[in-house]
Write a structure and sequence with these properties.
The protein has twelve helices and no strands. The longest helix has 29 residues. The chain is mostly helical. It starts with a helix and ends in a 12-residue tail after the last helix. It is 71% helix and 0% strand. The chain has two domains: 131 residues, no CATH class; 126 residues, no CATH class.
């Protein structure tokens, strides 16, 4: 069901968290901390939606458990990956393009925008958490998609971290494990996770929540995901051009002959 009051309270909570994160970013002079907080925006929204739900049913508890595992894992990994690295190059470019007064502009360009996107994308969580209908086959399909997504996202992150930790791999392109079948297993995993959340919301009758996985798919493919990561990577890393010729961009598939 669509609970407008709960949804607006979710927005309020996310925006408060975004402002606090912005203040932290000012102190650290590093707005890329928003990446660590991205998944936590959803966890905060889910907690608000659960608190507003009249009765916590099986679907409520199921979705909360899935969000907790996904959000904490992703936030912890990004925080660990970025430790001591300084501001991410993508945010450095945003900073350069929005001077002067980027410190103020970052409140809405970076933190506010990501908070609003998280709020919009959280629609399936609102619907599923507030649904009182019985668990059905679509819930199991949703959990299956979520599980596959976590395997690709967490598995891809783990494999890449191990690959980069070895000195002999310095400057080389990761093309092993899941990365042999898709150039972006972590983004594909995120895709599956949000279509999984939508399937669970759909199980409760919330067809209208489809806007969430559609927006997430667009972001992953056309905006902040694949398109941004590969914008000029072939120029910066010639070996990656060869990797592109034999490896699927997003959806996993057998490697092609270069």
């Amino acid at each position: 069901m669509f609970d407008l009051n709960a949804y607006l309270w979710g927005l309020t909570a996310i925006l408060i968290a975004a402002v606090l994160a912005w203040l932290m970013g000012l102190f650290k002079r590093d707005v890329s901390i928003v990446d660590s907080l991205w998944s936590l925006f959803f966890l905060l929204a889910a907690a608000v939606y659960a608190a507003a739900a009249p009765d916590a049913g099986p679907r409520t508890l199921l979705v909360l458990a899935l969000v907790v595992v996904w959000a904490l894992r992703l936030s912890a990994y990004i925080t660990w990956r970025n430790r001591g690295e300084g501001e991410d190059w993508r945010y450095q470019a945003i900073r350069r393009n929005n001077e002067p007064h980027f410190a103020i502009k970052s409140l809405y360009i970076v933190f506010g925008l990501q908070g609003l996107l998280a709020w919009l994308i959280s629609l399936p969580l609102l619907a599923a958490i507030g649904s009182g209908t019985a668990i059905n086959a679509l819930d199991f399909i949703g959990v299956g998609l979520w599980t596959a997504g976590m395997a690709f996202e967490a598995g891809g992150d783990y494999q890449l971290a191990r690959f980069k930790a070895r000195a002999e791999h310095q400057g080389k392109v990761m093309d092993q494990g899941l990365w042999r079948y898709t150039r972006h297993p972590n983004y594909f995993g995120e895709f599956c996770i949000w279509w999984g959340f939508y399937a669970i919301a759909l199980a409760g009758g919330a067809w209208w929540a489809v806007v969430s996985p559609l927006v997430m798919t667009g972001l992953l493919l056309r905006v902040s995901g694949v398109a941004l990561m590969e914008k000029d990577i072939g120029e910066r890393r010639p070996a990656y051009r060869e990797y592109i010729t034999r490896t699927n961009t997003f959806f996993p598939g057998p490697p092609r002959k270069a």
